[in-house]
Each structure stands twice: as C-alpha cells, then as structure tokens.
Amino acid sequence: MNREEALLALTTGNSHVRFRALRALEQVALPTDIAFLLRLQTTETDLYVKKRIDRIVSGLHVQLPAKPVEEDDIVPVDVRERIRADAIEWVAGLLLHEIGSKLGLLASEVSHDIPNYDNSNSKRRVEQLQDTFDGIEELKKATSSPKPVEMDLASFIRDLVELERVGRDVEASYVGSKPLVIFCDRGLLALALCNGIKNAIEAAISVRSENREPTIIVSWGQTDIDNWITIIDNGPGLPSNSSRSFVLGESTKSGHLGFGLGIARQAIETLHGTVELRNSGADGAAYELRWSLMK
C-alpha cells in the first residue's frame, strides 16, 4: 500500500483497514500529513487506531527539518538572539519609564480638560497609545530570563484555550499525552501560545456557515530534544501578505497594532525555540511552537 492508497483507506475503511493503512503510512508519511492525521484523530473511535496516529504524528514531528544556519554567519545564533533580546528589554524599559509612566496622568488630565471627552477622537487616540504601551510592556516580559518550573503541559494548554473560548461559539479538540509533565517558564510559554490561540479562534469564526462549524485542534508532544504545540484551525488560511506577520508593528488585520505575533516570537526564542505559521494543507492555518527541553 503506497502513501496515497493509505491516506484514502483512512477515510473509507473500517477500523481494521484503517489500522493496516496506518501501519503502511508509518513508513511513507510526510510532515505535510500531520494536519490531516490530527483532524482524523478527533473523530476516530478506535483506541488502537488513535494510538497509532499518535505514534506517527510524533515521528513526523521529529522529522521536521531544523532551520538552516548560514555558514558565513560569524555571530552564533544564540548570541545574536541574546543581543536582540537585551536591546529590546533596554529600549522597552526606557520607553515605559520615561513615557508610559506619564501616560496615565495625561489621560486623566485631558479627560477633564476636553469637553465631551468620552465621545471624542482624543479619547480614542489616548486609548490607542495606551494599547501600544501595553504591548511594549508585554514585549519586555518576553525578553526576561526563563524561570522554569514543573508543569503539566496538557492542563496548561487546555486552561488557556478554554479561557479564550469564553463567550465564543467555537469547538476545540485536544490531542496529546495527558498528563505531560515538563519544565518550562509558564509566563513565557503563555505569551508565545495565547496569540496563536486567539488568531486560530478568530480565523475559524470568520468562515462560519451552516455547513462549517468553527473548530480548532490543539496537539502537543515531546521528542528527545524538544517540546511542541500545534494549533490548527478551519479558517480561510493565510493571506498572501503574511510573510511579515512576526515583524513587530506590522499586521495583516485592520485595527491591530502588530505586537501579538512579534511578542510570541520573542517569548519562544527566549525559551530557545521557534514559532512557525503556515497553511495547514487542507483548509485553515497551523501555528506551531517548538522549544528545547529544560531541566
């Protein structure tokens, strides 16, 4: 059974046929099949088939290629990232101290000085400025040295997702070991993960229809060198201008300041990890975090 035949059998056969297909697929599956397998697992009822899917997905995550390092790059990657983080922390700290601390006083004074302030453009401008400084404060947090603690990754993920789902009609499926105890900085991981969750939920809701319920699938796991989390949504996929999504101050969404993904990137890099945003292969997008094991 080749790869195409195995993938087809997974959608048409009984549990015995699906198990045989997965056994064949284990030898020929590609990393691009991860999204399809995770979607399949959310509806699978046979425990043995579900475990076989887990095994294949974990193996495919190990196969994902590391980002190449330029041979002529004199400064090592970890040193360059530390220099960047130190620069961000220093500049953000300076802005927050010199300007951010006075912003609250400014907002209070103009609210009394300007007639009908609550309905004025001045209030909206001040609020935009306050949002910007909130983003700068989060960015400063994302550069702080990791303080790892023992934590259950499965319950951590579920708690964050369920918090973001409050008041939003979107289905969430969870795929991964429960519990999965790791050592990690909870604050930095939350900064890296929350924006991916929010974006996935918003994307899924944006294409709601009678035949398409908004859904996200969150999976997680661990290899011998790193931890990983993947969020897949059934939204419209990535826009054509998404290549600069992680650049601070740039956003593909109207009315967004462009801090969210930049902060997520800085936080995961502080954990010696990477973040990737890509189309999932079927419909929707996939947001993936990978970071080094800590002790």
Could you explain the architecture of this structure?
The chain is of the alpha+beta class and 295 residues long. The protein folds into three domains: 61 residues, Leucine-rich Repeat Variant; 66 residues; 144 residues, 2-Layer Sandwich (Heat Shock Protein 90). It has nine helices and seven strands; from the N terminus they run ααααααβαββαββαββ. The strands form two sheets. The chain has a five-stranded mixed sheet, with helices on both faces. A hairpin with a 5-residue loop joins strand 6 and strand 7. The longest helix is centred in the N-terminal third of the chain and has 37 residues.
Estimate what percentage of residues fall within beta strands: 5-15%
Number of helices: 9
CATH topology of the largest domain: Heat Shock Protein 90
From the N-terminal CA to the C-terminal CA, the straight-line distance is: 42 Å
- Residue share in helix: 40-55%
Largest sheet: 5 strands, mixed
CATH H level of the largest domain: which superfamily? Histidine kinase-like ATPase, C-terminal domain
Tell me the CATH architecture of the largest domain: 2-Layer Sandwich
Coarse structural class: alpha+beta
- Overall strand count: 7
CATH C-level category of the largest domain = Alpha Beta
What's the Cα radius of gyration? Answer: 22 Å
Spatially, the strands of the biggest sheet line up as 2-4-5-7-6
Low-confidence stretches: none
Average pLDDT over all residues? 80
| N-to-C SSE string, H for helix and E for strand | HHHHHHEHEEHEEHEE
- Taken together, the total number of domains comes to 3
